[in-house]
Amino acid sequence: MGSGGEVTGPADRQDSAGDTGSDEPGAAWSTGLSLTGAAVLFVVLRLFAVSDYDWVRAASVADTIGLDDAPRMVLATLMADPRVTAVVLAVLVPVSLVHQWRLGMPSFQNAGNLAMLIVVVLFGAVLLITIRLWWMLIIVGVVGVLVIALQTTAHRDPEGRRFALGVMHRSGAVAILAMLAAAAIVRVPWAPLERIETRDGTVIGYVLANPPGFLKVLTDEDREIMIIGIDHVRSREEIQAKS
Q1: Best CA proximity match to 187, nearest among 215, 222, 216
Q2: Which of 1, 29, 39, 64 gives 20 to 30 Å between its CA and that of 76?
């Protein structure tokens, strides 16, 4: 405790280390339920997004997936629309980076944030090099400067600093919210777009299920569900989806 000045003890340590008590059984149980709920919500949002928010189509698409498909759907969502992914990553990179800087050297306690930082930086670098969406760097810079500025104005704007610290301490929650936003926006499904030549003509769509004897296809243009018998299929070719 200092004399006649600020008290810089537990509060600052809590700012650096994040929330305390996260190892309690109740907190772990609550975290598990929250992640499960987020996974279910993500799947539901993806169903509606790829079905143009049509209840009947979404119900038909739902028949082709299970909750164990969620990891594949997350990766496919990140890969589907480079522009949406670029915005998500441009927000997550500076938040995770500044948070890791505050946490200090990598350790077991901050391994989760470090892993997320590595993943988002890797995705962002590959996206930047491949698609050349240079405006990502502008968003990264703006968000980074904003977060740092909010932290450094502790005396003039304590509410702003508290908000910035809260965002960084909950970088995992920020990542989840960003993925849920992407799930609600990205229209491209988690299967590759194909040109399917049949006896009756050409079908452009996504094969969501391939059980014995037929294909269940979500058409690209009209978002209708088609059942195509295997014996009617002449050829299948993967093509580039429209962004």
Answers
A1: 222
A2: 29
- Rounded to whole angstroms, the Cα distance separating 4 from 10 reads 17
Helix (H, G, I), strand (E, B) or coil at 225: strand
Residue range 145-151: average pLDDT?
75
Cα dihedral sign, 230-233-237-239: negative
Judge whether 164 and 150 are in contact, CB under 8 Å: yes
Amino acid at 40: V
What contacts 24+ positions apart, CB below 8 Å, involve 161-169? 165/15, 167/95, 168/95, 168/98, 168/99, 168/102, 169/15, 169/18, 169/19, 169/99
Q: What is the pLDDT of residue 167?
A: 59
For the chain, give the number of residues.
243
With beta carbons less than 8 A apart as the criterion, state whether 208 and 218 touch. yes
The mean per-residue pLDDT over the stretch 63-69 comes to 74
Integer Cα distance of 198 and 206 in angstroms: 15
Q: How far is CA 91 from CA 77, 83, 127, 168, 177, in A?
A: 17, 13, 14, 11, 11
Query: Order of strands, edge to edge, in the sheet holding 201-209?
Result: 225-229, 214-219, 201-209, 193-198, 233-238
What pTM does this model have?
0.65
